[in-house]
Structure formats: structure tokens, C-alpha cells
Amino acid sequence: KPYPLQMEGKVISGFGRGSRDLGIPTANLPVDYDSAPWLADIKSGVYFGWAALNLPPSHPNQPATTSPSSTTTAASGFSVYPMVMSIGRNDFYNNTVPSVEVHLLHDFEADFYGVEMRILITGFIREMRDYAGVDELIEDIKVDCDVALRSLDREAWALRETGKGTLDGS
Ligand code: ADP
Ligand code: MG
Q1: Residue ranges of domains in the chain, CATH in brackets
Q2: What is the rounded average pLDDT of the residues 20-27?
Q3: Which among 4, 52, 86, 94 is most buried, taking Cβ atoms within 10 Å?
Q4: Which residues have any ligand 1 atom within 6 Å of their CB?
Q5: Torsions phi, psi of 85, nearest 5?
Q6: How far apart are CA 7 and CA 85, in angstroms?
Q7: Mind giving me the DSSP string for 14-68?
Q8: Is 147 helix (H, G, I), strand (E, B) or coil?
Q9: CB–CB of 112/52 below 8 Å?
Q10: pLDDT at 151
């Protein structure tokens, strides 16, 4: 499949199955096949890429605009973060709507339910696995986060070197 794949939507509540308690909150997105037709046949698994949040100016997660390391783009209210995400569907049943859950690699001050999020998937990490316990799951997710950060570092570097612009489109 040609990367990057894009989708966007407002962050909705998931099942609240305690991913936050495991230290891995996942921002859930509604599935909209009109804007992301590729979702209909993408395989289940863990993917990585970038997530952009359109935080309202007063939101507690809003980065300080004076910081030179801020990821906020001048032109819009979007802030860009690396992410790992799971796309999960029960492949046994046809036509089931997959769940889309995005873990942003950033420590936030507050929740951001209802906030507009855009994601850009740049690659696939692995297929879903079954776990005997949460410890193994958490170990795997830590590895996923490492893989994502290292890969995205390389991409950012490549973009800078080729002078093709920055990842936030500026
Ligand atoms: P839910 O089942 O409602 O998705 P989670 O336990 O998965 O609950 O927590 C997800 C929520 O946590 C997100 O919707 C978001 O508002 C908040 N959150 C805080 N930090 C992060 C983060 N780093 N990545 C994703 N979501 C986060
Ligand atoms: Mg979630």
C-alpha cells in the first residue's frame, strides 16, 4: 500500500478498557470510509506515523508559542506529535468496522476528547498478537514506540536533507 495514509476526525471515547491505567492512553477516532477508503481493506496491526491535534487556544495542552522547540505551526492551531496506533478488526467477520486507536508519544497535561485530530500513517510495525498477560503487551508496546521514534527520526532527517520541506507542510 502506498504510504502515507491519511485520516481525520474528532477524538471519541473508546471502551475505557483501561489503556490509560496501563500508561498507554489511546485516542480513538471514528471510522469514516468516505474520507479514508483505505480503512476498508487495510490489515489489522500496529502502525506508526504522525498525529496533529487542533487544540483550542485555551486548551491546557497548548504548547507555549514562545518555545523554540514548539511543534506548533504558525499558520494553524495544529501541533504535531509522533504516534503509534492500532487498527483492529475481527478479520473473521467480513465488513466489521475496525477500531482506530492512536497513542501519541507525548505527555499531555489534560485529555483532549472532542478535539480534531489528523493522522498520517507512514508505515507498518507488526501484526496484532494475543497476550497471556498485560506485562507482555506493555513490553511490546514499548518496543513499538521505540521503533516508531527511530523510523520517524530517519524520515525527518531525509526530508531535511532533500529539502522537500517539513512534515507539517510548512
Ligand atoms: P478511551 O477508552 O476513552 O479511549 P483511554 O484510556 O484509551 O480511554 O484514554 C484515551 C484518552 O486519553 C484520549 O482520548 C485523550 O483524551 C487522552 N490522552 C492523554 N494523553 C494521551 C496520549 N499520549 N495519547 C493518546 N491519548 C491521550
Ligand atoms: Mg482509547
Answers
A1: 5-162 (2.40.30.30)
A2: 90
A3: 52
A4: 11, 13-16, 19-20, 25-28, 103-104, 106, 108, 111-113
A5: -145, 155
A6: 12
A7: ----STTTTT---EEE---TTT-GGGGTPPSEEEEEEEEEE--TT-TTPPPTT-T
A8: helix
A9: no
A10: 95
Is the ipTM, as predicted for this complex, more than 0.95?
yes
Mutate which of 26, 100, 115, 116 for ligand 1? The one with the most ligand atoms within 8 Å of its CB, which is: 26
The DSSP call for residue 97 is P
CA of 158 to the centre of ligand 1 (A): 31
Instruction: Quote the pTM value.
Output: 0.86
What's residue 167's pLDDT? 54
Q: What percent of the chain has pLDDT over 70?
A: 79
Nearest CA to ligand 1 atom 14: 27
User: How many angstroms is it from 18 CA to the middle of ligand 1?
Assistant: 10
